[in-house]
Write a structure and sequence with these properties.
about 260 residues, alpha+beta, RNA Polymerase Alpha Subunit, Chain A, domain 2
């Protein structure tokens, strides 16, 4: 992978004041972190950053960060470690960079790309991709854009584990080798799993504040059941409840 160039400037003011000043200039605040060094507050163009990482590698794109500081400049090899984006426009609002050594292996998460259609799917099975990104260790220039896994031979009940993945020669996967990455399950197993999630456990308490009769609400009293202890008596002069027994003919109501 060839590094993409991104320009940045040192941000003299930190905190909210410096961030607001950067945004007034059409830039976004950023920070560059490096092991054993102090972090550097920067500002970069959100549009330039978007173009720089618009590659098959995405956040794993190696960036050559050209930093200007009061007339001087320096270059750092970095990865986009984290970012904040606008919830609607998806534009970058803040970026964190992690400096890496081009000659030292680094750890990143790489996407898993499922290829083909499993035999078990044609037989009615359901494909479950358990892991979508795997951690790997390699030199920055050797970071793969993705790791493909061919599922075409999988029948119902078959799966592929981390130890079955085939990364490029210079890339090492660092996760439990027995971890299931993708598998095909029978439709019955899928329905049972959904039912276990949807059905409340036996004896589960009623939801507080639930509408009577709604799922999770406490059931009403059984017909003919005695009123609960401490239940309020009917108000004087109140009409008898529907279906209540009337006084016997000629009899009097007890006071």
């Amino acid at each position: 992978m060839e590094a993409r160039t991104l320009n940045a400037e040192v941000r003299e003011r930190r905190g909210k004041g410096g961030a607001r000043q950067a945004r007034r200039l059409g830039l976004i605040p950023a920070v560059c972190y490096a092991r054993g060094k102090e972090s550097v507050a920067l500002c970069v163009s959100p549009h330039d950053l978007e173009k720089a990482v618009a590659t098959p590698w995405g956040m794993n794109t190696v960036l050559s960060l050209h930093v200007k500081n009061n007339g001087s400049s320096s270059t750092r090899t970095v990865l986009l470690h984290d970012f904040q984006a606008h919830p609607v426009s998806k534009e970058f609002l803040h970026a964190d960079f992690r400096e890496v050594d081009p000659t030292t292996p680094t750890r990143v998460d790489v996407a898993i790309a499922v290829v083909g259609r499993a035999v078990g799917q044609n037989e009615g099975g359901i494909l479950h991709q358990v892991v979508r990104r795997v951690p790997v260790v390699c030199l920055p220039a050797d970071i793969p854009a993705k790791i493909e896994v061919d599922i075409s031979a999988l029948g119902i009940g078959d799966g592929i584990k981390a130890e079955d993945l085939k990364p490029p020669a210079k890339v090492k996967i660092v996760m439990d080798p027995k971890q299931t990455v993708v598998h095909v399950v029978a439709p019955e197993e899928e329905k049972v799993a959904e039912a276990e999630v949807a059905a409340p456990a036996e004896g589960e308490a009623a939801v507080a504040g639930a509408v009577p009769g709604a799922p999770g609400a406490a059931p009403g009293a059984a017909p003919g059941a005695a009123p609960a202890a401490g239940a309020a008596k009917g108000a004087p002069g109140a009409a008898p409840a529907a279906g209540a027994a009337k006084p016997a003919a000629g009899g009097k109501e007890k006071k």
